[in-house]
Amino acid sequence: MSVLRVEDAAGVRTLTLDRPEALNALDRELKEVLLAAIRGAARDAHVRAVVLTGAGRAFCAGQDLREREGSPASLAEELQERYIPLVLALRRLEKPIIAAVNGVAAGAGLSLALACDLRVMAEGATLVAAFGRIGLVPDSGMSWFLPRLVGPARAAEMLMLSDPIDAARAERIGLADRVVPAGAAVTEAQALAARLADGAPLAQALTRRALAYAQEHDLEATLEFETQLQDVAGRSADHAEGLRAFVEKRPPRFTGE
User: Fold this and answer.
1) What is the rounded distance in angstroms from the CA atom of residue 47 to the CA atom of residue 215?
2) CA 238, CA 199: separation in Å to the nearest integer?
3) Could you tell me the fold of the domain covering 201-248?
4) CATH 3.90.226.10 occupies which residues in the chain?
């Protein structure tokens, strides 16, 4: 039985972590299958947006701690071999990706949600840094994502106290983009992903690059990088189609070319 469900509809690929009995905790098999699925979505031209969610009552509880008991592998090895490639694959995916946080997202599970472009949270869902509760430090990119989303002081509070953040507060401080009734997170995320799937694929990929670049460079360098990307987008068939559609007062039909 697979630990990951993959479903396609209208250009949207939904990846569902499917270990509900373990709150979708990340064991070795799930990490490897999820990495392959993300890379597969990157290669598939029919996929224009991705939704990441979890089965049952959790998004993802983080590392499966039962797997760590008696494991000869160091935490550094596990991070280097599985978590780092997974986080980088999410960030390098040149397609919009939305986390549908249907329940708790804890530890590395929270890191996966933060690595997505947008987060739709269900009422009753919670975010928990969790690492400090078991004597560990944040990993899987959490110390990089959190300060950029909520600022250094709130990030320090979340990481050092490990208090749960409910959906209402998550939306207030910028961790959740939308909060919806319980049971509606996946449907809302898929509807949002469908809107993104109708957009211009090349422009969205370049926008993702621009946002990533801007986080690491000053204004002058970012202005130059934007200019380079705009030159690429401006020469695309999608831009020409967008102009035609505007003049003809009809919805554009983007192809990604």
Assistant:
1) 27
2) 9
3) Lyase 2-enoyl-coa Hydratase; Chain  A, domain 2 (1.10.12)
4) 4-197
- Please state at what angle helix 201-214 crosses helix 237-248, rounded to 10 degrees: 110
* pLDDT in the model for residue 146: 96
Is-contact 102 58, C-beta < 8 A? yes
CA distances from 149 to 116, 117, 141, 225, 245 (A): 12, 11, 12, 22, 36
The CATH architecture one would assign to domain 4-197 is Alpha-Beta Complex (3.90)
Consecutive H or E run containing 196: helix 185-197
12-17 and 4-9 beta bridge pairing: antiparallel
Question: Phi and psi at residue 118, in whole multiples of 5°?
Answer: -135, 155
CA dist list (Å): 44 to 47, 180, 224, 242: 6, 30, 31, 23
Give the pLDDT means over successive 10-residue stretches in the chain (257 positions): 92 97 95 97 96 97 82 82 95 96 96 97 96 90 96 95 96 96 96 95 95 95 96 94 91 87
3-class SS at 205?
helix
Provide the residue count of the chain. Answer: 257
β-bridge pairing 126-128 and 165-166: antiparallel
Instruction: Give 107's contacts (C-beta < 8 A, 6+ positions apart).
Output: 61, 62, 63, 128, 129, 130, 131
- Amino acid 65: pLDDT: 86
Rounded to an integer, what distance in angstroms lies between the CA atom of residue 57 and that of residue 101?
Answer: 10
**Distance (Å) of CA 2 to CA 5, 16, 139:** 7, 10, 26
